[in-house]
Amino acid sequence: MSAEQNIQELIKGCLANDRKAQEGxxxxxxxxxxxxxxxxxxxxxxxxxxxxxxxLKIFKSMHSFSPDKGSLHAWIKRIVINEGLDHMNSRKKHIxxxxxxxxxxxxxxxxxxxxxxxxxxxxMIRKLPPATHAVFVLYAIxxxxxxxxxxxxxxxxxxxxxxxxxxxxxxxxxxxxxxx
Amino acid sequence: MDQKTxxxxxxxxxLDSFPxxxxxxxxxxxxxxxxxxxxPVQKDQTGHSGKVSGKSALYWGGTGFIAxxxxxxxxxxxxxxxxxxxxxxxxxxxxxxxSFIQKQDSTVQHTDPPVHKSQPFIQPxxxxxxxxxxxxxxxxxxxxxxxxxRDSLNHINIPKPMVITPPLIKxxxxxxxxxxxxxxxxxxxxxxxxxxxxx
Lengths: 180, 199
What we know:
heterodimer; A: elongated; B: mainly alpha; 6 helices
């Protein structure tokens, strides 16, 4: 049975509320979803919270998935990101409303970054304030533009650009401190 | 429009190789508990959802039926074994069974269920009458069979086994001609043809 056929069988089982099919789908997408969840979490426990809520949402709304609209990967990614953002929203106290026309892009040495491990980079990003953290991940890693980020976080595009600038400045300082 | 910087591209590559925590089982247990509350499964005997309960009922029904048939066959075998050890006293061949026997296959050892149309051949006092085919086998094999029964059996027109012989393959090769007369003579020698005068 091919991977595509396997996924189709699992989707059918999930629609029938079959636990084995649901577990099968979860384990198949565990790595993919966890990679995304970790970007929006402070630690592994946070990521586990995001994962459990995201998959519950996935199974409850499986009937709304349509292969014509996109792939299952893209659909699951959207749900995990949304759950990650909701999780971050619950932690932040307020969102800065400073507007910027253009996000600043300080120069950061790629050499210094290459010498850092993935764990060190993740630790650096997690230390950013929640809103700044969310904007940076959505923009720099997930590839969303400021209009999409503004819609999702219910902020203006200017505020999104400000948060991105703040994230870049903060990371530049941390990377420079690491390299020296 | 802001563009992604080169170091952000590098950050993305690095984060893709971030080691994943081994929490798959822990997280699934949590999801399972949440699903039990939000989307409970209608459990039946097999623990599957209600939608497949019909299939499981069919499965168990079929298994029960097969078990019942096996039990019947086992009981039948036990009865047969018990009847072979029972002493057979003087009995006479029932005429109805005689016709039944004629219709039977030569191989009396078969496992068909008893034919209820014919009357029992042997009327044992305590046990129920077994099938005619089996009765014959048990009677013949019993050491205490009386002479009268043997005589009766001799009169039974048990059809002889059908021996199917393969069709004769005709030999088309001609038979060698038998030599006749005196050796050395040919047919021409016997021809009555006038000979020409030599003069």
